[in-house]
Write a structure and sequence with these properties.
The chain is mainly beta and 291 residues long. It is built from 1 helix and 21 strands. Residues 1-5, 12-19 and 21-30 have low confidence and may be disordered. Pfam families: RND-MFP_C.
Length: 291
């Protein structure tokens, strides 16, 4: 009788364990699926750059607005927009046909070597002395004229490096000169930037210019998204066992796209940049490397 009872108990225990094994496995699978997924950046060495962004316009090395020296009517336009001119080439003729005046056409001459950028008048149009009739420019060397705000004026140094981006191409340049005073109307100062290369650029184009006010090369960097807002004291690291560790750090240069790390993390470690708001220290996570 005792043997029968033991047999029944073992059968009941076996059935209980058999029925619960799938359940345990299911719970384990669900638990793995519930792990939060975060995006991480691999800490590596690179360049950290801080810039001041300005809005400017591409100009020629020289730009001269030509004005009429006599009053009269535009008789003939010798040069079209885009034509090459030399000093004292005739751009147009103006005829003073007022009764009592000499009916001799007066030439309008180019003051520099370059190109005709703009003709402001048409044939038979009346002009006065001092009326702008044309613009002549030289495009052998291009420059950029821009305005810098009052708060950024202290960063400016002559010959400081800068660049502009046009059509996904970077053009290097340097700050040639800038106004030492603030314009009371615009609350800014004008700067002139000379470009080392000008292929595919045209005079008159608007552009964004970046003045490099600080740069660190070959330093450990992380993305700004590794930090919470403007708190640069700590960040989250995913360790080799996939658990999260909060790490206190010391930062150096806070650049436009990267932040220099002086202490706290090492090259090759994984720093959380996406989803850090949903994790806690010590918790296990799944991660995906974001490049």
């Amino acid at each position: 009788m005792w043997s029968v009872k033991r047999l029944i108990n073992w059968q009941v225990l076996f059935i209980f364990l058999f029925l619960n094994i799938p359940s345990c496995r299911q719970k384990k699978v669900v638990k793995e699926k519930e792990l939060p997924t975060v995006g991480v950046q691999i800490v590596e060495k690179g360049n950290c750059i801080k810039t001041v962004k300005l809005f400017g316009r591409i100009c020629g090395e020289e730009e001269v607005i030509v004005v009429s020296k006599i009053m009269g009517k535009v008789l003939k336009i010798n040069k079209k927009e885009g034509d090459v001119v030399k000093i004292n080439d005739t751009i147009m003729y103006i005829l003073n046909d007022i009764p009592g005046a000499e009916y001799q056409p007066g030439p309008v001459l180019s003051p520099i070597n370059g190109k005709v950028g703009k003709i402001y008048v048409e044939i038979a149009q009346m002009v006065n002395v001092g009326t702008p009739v044309a613009l002549v420019f030289s495009d052998k060397k291009l420059r950029v004229k821009a305005k810098v705000s009052e708060k950024d004026l202290s960063y400016l140094k002559k010959r400081m490096a800068c660049y502009l981006i046009f059509d996904n191409k970077r053009y290097e340049g340097y700050l040639e000169k800038f106004s030492p005073m603030i314009d009371p109307l615009t609350r800014g100062a004008e700067v002139e930037i000379y470009l080392k290369e000008n292929k595919d650029l045209r005079v008159g184009m608007p552009c964004d210019v970046y003045l490099i006010i600080d740069e660190k090369k070959d330093v450990l960097t992380v993305l700004p998204t590794a930090f919470f807002l403007n708190d640069y004291s700590s960040l989250y690291v995913v360790k080799d066992d996939s658990t999260v560790e909060k790490r206190n750090v010391k930062v150096g240069l806070i650049g436009d796209e990267k932040i220099e790390i002086l202490e706290g993390v090492k090259e090759g470690e994984k720093v959380i940049t996406l989803g850090k708001e949903y994790v806690k220290e010590g918790r296990k996570v799944r991660f995906q490397i974001i490049k």
